[in-house]
Amino acid sequence: MALLLRTLARQGVCLSKPHHHVFYRHAAPMGTTAKEEMNKFWAKNSRLNRPVSPHITIYKWSIPMMMSITHRGTGVGLSGAISAFAVAALVLPGNYTHYLDLIHSLSVGPFLIGLAKFAIAFPLSYHTYNGIRHLYWDVGKGFKIPEVYRTGYTVIGLSVITSIALSLI
Fold this sequence. Notes:
- This protein has helices at 2-10, 21-24, 34-47, 63-91, 96-105, 110-138, 145-167.
- α4 (63-91) packs across α6 and α6 (110-138) packs antiparallel against α7.
- The chain has 169 residues and is mostly helical.
């Protein structure tokens, strides 16, 4: 602390007689303001006829792009669903068998139950298989475009087959 006070006193920073120039004496004056820079930026973009920002409408949709978006969506959806079920298990009265009996009493039919099972199984299987694909990429393999598409179609196929198999259980 004493070293800090001595250093500040030597530079002329004292509370009894403030020297405001000490705080900005090392600052270089700006040539332009931020507003002028932004005006130059937008003028250049207008002159070059550039779009305002890259938007999904200018990209050609591809399987890897859609799989990436779906992987993120299934991850967020699975996390949200697991969190919601955990909170529900903590705060709702009754136990698991009570709510299972409630679902059975609805008499929704085997088709809707199979559809609900598929809706639960597909995001889980897709996210799992695509996660394995990402681990394969982490090793540094499978980056050639034909391999990316082949592994993508493999993930989709395995996810659908696994989801149908789990729905039939």
